[in-house]
Specification:
There is one protein chain. The protein is 33% helix and 13% strand. The chain has 267 residues and is of the alpha/beta class. Strand 7, helix 9 and strand 8 form a beta-alpha-beta unit. The protein is globular.
């Protein structure tokens, strides 16, 4: 992966996905998507594309053809990253109602074949798929870095979901991104205080209601003036918006939302 000019000093990972009172089983260093075991296997075994089984390109488990099938989120709303047909500063929804965050950086559009890698990583424990997604994320940051910020915070999982899955997929993607950008990562700054039903089949309004008062700030956390909140996929933006409201109430002046991929047309 290439290097990005650092935003700040070397990053510091501020702990697991949840604070000490909410501790769960986040991945150890050797099993992270960019961990030691992964790097050893990558050096010993030839890369194979996780999508088609062909030869990997550039030392990665992704071939050039499948890499070319990924859709970059080139034309999108600057505020919420909603994919647009043509270059416009803001989408209609953000013009009508300003979201509680100031900008968005989401380099990929969610769709085939990226959705296959995301599902394998998020729901099936496939850390090799997570590694490829992290590489794509850092590649995008090399090509077009996000706006300056002082701290990266991850959208947390509830402790029950974290124990069930074993890791927070957003945190596993945010670690290599923060490292590449030279930013501190406060993994446990936000808590998910209420378990919420799965949001897959909910529309935007139902998602907002589902997430109301589901997050809080960890006790004793001090936040800088500029913070970026990271999630793996931004669907309607309801989760990131609710997290942003918590940070805004805590006095954060500028909030950006970052994600790997944006779902088109889900508002």
């Amino acid at each position: 992966m290439g290097q990005v000019a650092p935003h700040a000093s070397a990053p510091q990972d501020a702990g697991a996905s949840l604070g000490s009172a909410w501790e769960a089983v986040n991945l150890s260093g050797s099993r992270q998507v960019d961990g030691i075991a992964r790097r050893v296997l990558q050096a010993l075994l030839p890369p194979r594309c996780l999508l088609c089984g062909g030869d990997g390109a550039q030392g990665r488990d992704l071939c050039a053809g499948c890499r070319g099938d990924l859709a970059a989120n080139t034309h999108c709303c600057a505020r919420c990253a909603l994919p647009l047909q043509t270059a416009e500063p803001l989408c209609g929804r953000c013009l009508r109602r300003t979201p509680p965050f100031d900008g968005a950086w989401v380099p990929w559009r969610y769709g085939h074949p990226l959705d296959l890698l995301e599902a394998r990583f998020k729901f099936h424990g496939d850390l090799a798929a997570g590694h490829v997604l992290a590489e794509l994320l850092v590649d995008a940051a090399c090509a077009a870095p996000p706006a300056q910020t002082d701290l990266v915070i991850c959208v947390p999982l509830h402790r029950e979901r974290l124990r069930e899955r074993g890791y927070n997929q957003a945190l596993e993607l945010a670690r290599p991104l923060a490292r590449a950008l030279g930013l501190p990562l406060a993994a446990g700054a936000l808590l998910r205080t209420r378990a919420t039903p799965a949001q897959t089949d909910l529309d935007a309004g139902a998602r907002r209601r589902n997430l109301r008062d589901a997050f809080s700030l960890s006790p004793g956390v001090e936040l800088p003036a500029r913070v970026a909140i990271f999630d793996d996929v931004m669907t309607t933006g309801a989760t990131l918006a609710e997290c942003a409201r918590v940070l805004r109430r805590a006095g954060v002046q500028h909030i950006d939302v970052w994600a790997l991929a944006r779902v088109p047309g889900r508002r």
